[in-house]
């Protein structure tokens, strides 16, 4: 009898694997034609090719599953399988992640990519398994710049009292408070309507976001401040990850690596073309000179005292020392 039951079970399994695909709901904040959309598409394509279509990706772009924090919580409880997110709320899950949000930490995109792909970045990725998440790869958004409707910005005094939306990120909040602005942490899905209604004067995001979301429709001034690098991350749910075979895990790892490369390629392109696009769309664009940027760096120094209390100075020094 036992033999018969086992045979029936294996028949059912064979029939099941022949027809059933495992659904992978992937949520992200931006549109399909953004750096996130391009990465999600590549992730889907590679995993599908590597597993002969065993997984069916269902895409939820433009915050279709909620804000980034809500989506990450969905991953933890296993109701959402995958996401691509900024570092906005990641420090609320793995505090060490916040070290990358320190203003003026990275010299350029190459420096940031070498740190994230090197030992420091990989050590931080590994910490996500302890909080119900599995981090597959670092992607990126680029360097963040300030947009607003109140005035052009060339000196720290120009941001005094500016009602600026920040991500729900304590490191960014500290920086804008130190600069004398009036920062409001806010989930991304509320930002456009808050700008339209004048609840906030401005926000800050990389060119990749400003261009794809068409922030020019609700913002007049763009200041190329490059005040902080904005990493992104490809994450899957730990309960989902633990249920995968080793072959499937390898397919997801390959997919995430290729997705991150596609995302960085997209960012490289928009870093080259984005300013011209936004000027054509009517934005008034100003770039901080080296001296003007140094003045912002100086004005934000006070925040470093807090950062050194939160993050190991040796870790910050290791990042700065990365060639
Ligand atoms: O500003 C943010 O919250 C993020 O940069 C965004 C636009 C949601 C992309 O991850």
TrEMBL record:
<protein>
    <submittedName>
        <fullName>DctP family TRAP transporter solute-binding subunit</fullName>
    </submittedName>
</protein>
<dbReference type="InterPro" id="IPR038404">
    <property type="entry name" value="TRAP_DctP_sf"/>
</dbReference>
<dbReference type="InterPro" id="IPR018389">
    <property type="entry name" value="DctP_fam"/>
</dbReference>
<dbReference type="Pfam" id="PF03480">
    <property type="entry name" value="DctP"/>
</dbReference>
<dbReference type="GO" id="GO:0055085">
    <property type="term" value="P:transmembrane transport"/>
</dbReference>
<keyword id="KW-0732">Signal</keyword>
<dbReference type="GO" id="GO:0030288">
    <property type="term" value="C:outer membrane-bounded periplasmic space"/>
</dbReference>
<feature type="signal peptide">
    <location>
        <begin position="1"/>
        <end position="20"/>
    </location>
</feature>
<keyword id="KW-0574">Periplasm</keyword>
<keyword id="KW-0813">Transport</keyword>
<comment type="similarity">
    <text>Belongs to the bacterial solute-binding protein 7 family.</text>
</comment>
<dbReference type="InterPro" id="IPR004682">
    <property type="entry name" value="TRAP_DctP"/>
</dbReference>
């Amino acid at each position: 009898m036992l033999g018969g039951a086992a045979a029936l079970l294996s028949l059912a399994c064979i029939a099941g694997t022949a027809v059933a695909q495992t659904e992978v709901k992937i949520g992200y904040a931006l549109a399909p034609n953004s750096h996130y959309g391009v990465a999600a598409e590549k992730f889907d394509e590679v995993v599908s090719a590597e597993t002969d279509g065993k997984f069916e990706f269902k895409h939820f772009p433009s915050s279709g599953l909620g804000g980034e924090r809500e989506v990450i919580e969905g991953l933890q409880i296993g109701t959402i399988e995958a996401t691509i997110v900024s570092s906005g709320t990641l420090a609320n899950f793995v505090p060490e992640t916040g070290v990358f949000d320190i203003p003026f930490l990275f010299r350029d995109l190459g420096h940031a990519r070498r740190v994230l792909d090197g030992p420091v970045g990989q050590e931080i990725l590994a910490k996500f398994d302890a909080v119900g998440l599995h981090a597959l790869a670092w992607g990126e958004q680029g360097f963040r710049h300030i947009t607003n409707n109140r005035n052009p910005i060339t000196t720290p005094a120009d941001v005094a009292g500016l009602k600026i939306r920040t991500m729900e990120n304590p490191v960014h909040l500290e920086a804008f408070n130190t600069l004398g602005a009036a920062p409001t942490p806010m989930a991304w899905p509320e930002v456009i309507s808050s700008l339209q209604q004048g609840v906030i004067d401005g926000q800050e995001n990389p060119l990749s976001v400003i261009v794809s979301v068409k922030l020019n429709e609700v913002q007049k001034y763009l200041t190329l401040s490059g005040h902080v690098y904005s990493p992104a991350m490809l994450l899957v749910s730990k309960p989902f990850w633990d249920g995968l075979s080793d072959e499937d895990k390898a397919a997801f790892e390959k997919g995430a690596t290729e997705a991150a490369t596609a995302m960085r390629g997209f960012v490289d392109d928009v870093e080259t073309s984005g300013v011209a696009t936004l000027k054509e769309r009517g934005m008034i664009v100003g770039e901080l000179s080296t001296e003007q940027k140094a003045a912002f760096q100086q004005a934000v120094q006070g925040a470093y005292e807090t950062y050194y209390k939160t993050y190991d100075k040796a870790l910050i020094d290791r990042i700065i020392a990365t060639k």
